[in-house]
Amino acid sequence: MIGRLNHVAIAVRDIEKASALYRDTLGARVTPPVDQPAHGVTVVFVELPNTKIEFLQPLGADSPIAKFLDKNPDGGIHHVCYEVDDILAARDHLKAQGARVLGDGNPKIGAHDKPVLFLHPKDFNGTLVELEQA
Fold first, then answer.
1. Most buried residue, 17, 18, 108, 125, by CB count within 10 Å?
2. Cα–Cα distance between 19 and 47 in angstroms, integer?
């Protein structure tokens, strides 16, 4: 069921500073920032040969990333994202296994304009897991 690692998301306070570090110091290709108001974040992707790193900066005080940064002032890994072929089938399978889907359980459109779901970190070794339909 689980596919390839799509990205690792890192919460940051300053997306421009984080982008410059990866672009200028590590020589990575970095996308321009894109506001995602529906998710309360601004995102940037660091494109690697085999996956991506996603920087998440809060977009407003009510952003879930703002709350994450309140608890983790220096930022840090927020979630990992895995691809699945059929997000509804994956959701139903995981729920049948006892996994908790966050929110109302229905996919939302993510930063790649594809359906996504998040799984409760307590069910996955303390890690917030995002599933994205490939």
1. 18
2. 11
Task: Choose among 73, 40, 78, 72: nearest CA to 59.
Answer: 40
1 has pLDDT over 90: no
CATH entry, 5-133, from 3.90.226.10, 1.20.120.450, 3.10.180.10, 3.40.50.880: 3.10.180.10
With b for 16 or more beta-carbon neighbours within 10 A and e for fewer, the 8-22 pattern comes to: bbbbbeebeebbebb
Question: Which of the following is catalytic: 16, 54, 83, 130?
Answer: 130
Active site residue 130: yes
- Indicate the SS3 state at residue 38: coil
pLDDT per residue over 12-39, tens digit each? 999 999 999 999 999 999 999 999 998 9
Using CA atoms, how far apart are residues 132 and 134, in angstroms rounded to an integer?
Answer: 6
Summarised one tens digit per residue, pLDDT across range 73-127 is 999 999 999 999 999 999 999 999 999 999 999 999 998 999 999 999 999 999 9
Give the three-class secondary structure for 47. Answer: strand
